[in-house]
């Protein structure tokens, strides 16, 4: 088990550097994780999406979040990355390293496990503890997101329709008064609306919202494209409380009319952005100053 975790951390370190170069070099951990999930050839989407339930709190969490945080702190400690709050950025060393030859087992771990320096070892352990605290804090802060997604799954069809109508309105979509948004037998919504841009151009948009336990596969995107043809829509928006498979993401980007995919994480972002039946709560956590013994 330990060897598997170390191997996954090593793979993740390299994938972090690849993802950060692809994203421009300054991103959040969530953006790194999302990019790895969608694009990595070394880490599967199933590995990133895996969810467990904490025996201590009963809350759901993703083990990969811990793996990612440890990998980030190791790269920070060895000079490949720098941290600025919740942002992570590539250093000159991180930008210039040859990823074809980069090997975390040789280029990172020996500097973390230098037992000749007790002070360095203590610093490493402190930073590793800090990485775990960051993950725990992020998990606590993000618990409302999981609560929201759980609530959406439990909603009655009528209430889910109301939620979707409201969110679409907040997004600036004028739902067609005749076609509108209708609940369908497979647990989703089909709809049609209009988006007006700043230059007074109105665009026809097909809408679909589906509640899924698993990730939405590519065939569902193909079926939705057929609905777009029916209404002669210029583009489409597909919303789900879960996520989309890599195949679905690829399918949505093909053809002359791109389909915008909104997953559960983005639903949470939109709900927070528009304060849609939520309210922000400010809280404080004590830093280690209050608990450390001098």
From TrEMBL:
<dbReference type="InterPro" id="IPR025745">
    <property type="entry name" value="Mrr-like_N_dom"/>
</dbReference>
<feature type="domain" description="Restriction system protein Mrr-like N-terminal">
    <location>
        <begin position="12"/>
        <end position="97"/>
    </location>
</feature>
<protein>
    <submittedName>
        <fullName>Mrr restriction system protein</fullName>
    </submittedName>
</protein>
<dbReference type="InterPro" id="IPR052906">
    <property type="entry name" value="Type_IV_Methyl-Rstrct_Enzyme"/>
</dbReference>
<dbReference type="Pfam" id="PF14338">
    <property type="entry name" value="Mrr_N"/>
</dbReference>
<dbReference type="InterPro" id="IPR007560">
    <property type="entry name" value="Restrct_endonuc_IV_Mrr"/>
</dbReference>
<dbReference type="GO" id="GO:0015666">
    <property type="term" value="F:restriction endodeoxyribonuclease activity"/>
</dbReference>
<feature type="compositionally biased region" description="Basic and acidic residues">
    <location>
        <begin position="123"/>
        <end position="134"/>
    </location>
</feature>
<feature type="domain" description="Restriction endonuclease type IV Mrr">
    <location>
        <begin position="153"/>
        <end position="270"/>
    </location>
</feature>
<dbReference type="GO" id="GO:0003677">
    <property type="term" value="F:DNA binding"/>
</dbReference>
<keyword id="KW-0378">Hydrolase</keyword>
<dbReference type="GO" id="GO:0009307">
    <property type="term" value="P:DNA restriction-modification system"/>
</dbReference>
<dbReference type="InterPro" id="IPR011856">
    <property type="entry name" value="tRNA_endonuc-like_dom_sf"/>
</dbReference>
<feature type="region of interest" description="Disordered">
    <location>
        <begin position="123"/>
        <end position="142"/>
    </location>
</feature>
<dbReference type="InterPro" id="IPR011335">
    <property type="entry name" value="Restrct_endonuc-II-like"/>
</dbReference>
<dbReference type="Pfam" id="PF04471">
    <property type="entry name" value="Mrr_cat"/>
</dbReference>
């Amino acid at each position: 088990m330990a060897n598997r975790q170390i191997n996954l951390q090593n793979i993740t370190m390299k994938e972090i550097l690849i993802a950060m170069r692809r994203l421009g070099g300054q991103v959040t951990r969530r953006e790194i994780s999302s990019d790895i999930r969608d694009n990595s050839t070394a880490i599967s989407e199933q590995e990133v999406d895996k969810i467990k339930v904490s025996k201590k709190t009963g809350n759901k969490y993703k083990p990969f979040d811990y793996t990612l945080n440890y990998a980030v702190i190791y790269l920070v400690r060895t000079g490949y990355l720098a941290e600025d709050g919740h942002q992570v950025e590539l250093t000159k060393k991180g930008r210039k390293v040859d990823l074809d030859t980069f090997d975390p087992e040789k280029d990172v771990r020996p500097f973390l496990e230098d037992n000749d320096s007790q002070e360095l070892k203590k610093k490493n352990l402190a930073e590793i503890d800090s990485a775990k605290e960051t993950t725990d804090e992020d998990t606590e802060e993000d618990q409302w997101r999981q609560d929201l997604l759980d609530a959406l799954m439990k909603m009655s069809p009528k209430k889910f329709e109301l939620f979707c109508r409201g969110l679409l309105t907040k997004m600036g979509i004028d739902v067609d008064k005749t076609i509108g948004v209708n609940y369908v037998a497979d647990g989703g919504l089909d709809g049609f609306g209009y988006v007006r841009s700043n230059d007074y151009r109105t665009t026809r948009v097909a809408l679909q919202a589906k509640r899924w336990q698993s990730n939405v596969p590519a065939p569902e995107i193909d079926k939705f494209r057929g609905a777009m043809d029916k209404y002669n829509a210029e583009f489409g928006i597909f919303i789900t409380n879960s996520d989309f498979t890599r195949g679905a993401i690829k399918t949505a980007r093909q053809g002359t009319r791109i389909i915008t995919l909104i997953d559960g994480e983005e639903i949470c972002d939109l709900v927070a952005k528009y304060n849609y039946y939520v309210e922000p709560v400010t809280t404080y956590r004590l830093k280690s100053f209050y608990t450390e013994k001098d």
